[in-house]
């Protein structure tokens, strides 16, 4: 009986999808492709966007972009929470390895989940009302990739000084949709506090 139970558990482990890592800080390392999207949605606080996905190692990533109306302060990216006010939310440097690999992994997910015509439709939509429910989820992932790539808030250098980065609006290059980068905010550079 005991042998049968062990064999059954082994067969279940081999045939089951990736188990989410129990390591609480695995999100501090760049994600490994491919990823499985768990959720992409917005809060009704002005549109704070979040995505949750699990990488090939089983690590769960939760990334959010602060878009709260009337909150003041920076409009930065955060990791380890679905909202900037939730416990564990940590500012994410959009120029860092974790953000870069997350954007790459999400772009890869978009390419594998949707065909080029659907990606073009998602990229050109002016409102979510134009999209199906499934396409709207893809549009939120697309928006998160664009947000990460646009460096909405710079990270911090050692010693706590902020660095200034240019703000860009762009569509993900690897999707082959638009390779142009247009500077936003009148071409001005921005710092974390000026968002």
Write the layout of secondary structure elements.
Blueprint: H1 2-15, E1 36-42, E2 49-54, E3 60-65, E4 77-79, E5 90-91, H2 97-113, H3 116-124, H4 133-149, E6 165-166, E7 168-170, E8 181-183, E9 189-190
Helix pairs in contact: 2-4, 3-4
Descriptive key words:
disordered N terminus; 195 residues; globular; five-stranded antiparallel beta sheet; 4 helices; 17% strand; alpha+beta
Description:
By secondary structure, the protein is an alpha+beta fold. 29% of the residues lie in helices and 17% in strands. It contains 4 helices and 9 strands, in the order αβββββαααββββ. It has helices spanning 2-15, 97-113, 116-124, 133-149, and strands at residues 36-42, 49-54, 60-65, 77-79, 90-91, 165-166, 168-170, 181-183, 189-190. A 5-stranded antiparallel beta sheet has the order 1-2-3-4-5, with helices on one face. Strands 6-9 form a two-stranded antiparallel sheet. It has a two-stranded antiparallel sheet with strand order 7-8. Helix 2 (97-113) packs antiparallel against helix 4 and helix 3 (116-124) crosses helix 4. Mean pLDDT is 74; it is low at 1-20 and 156-195.
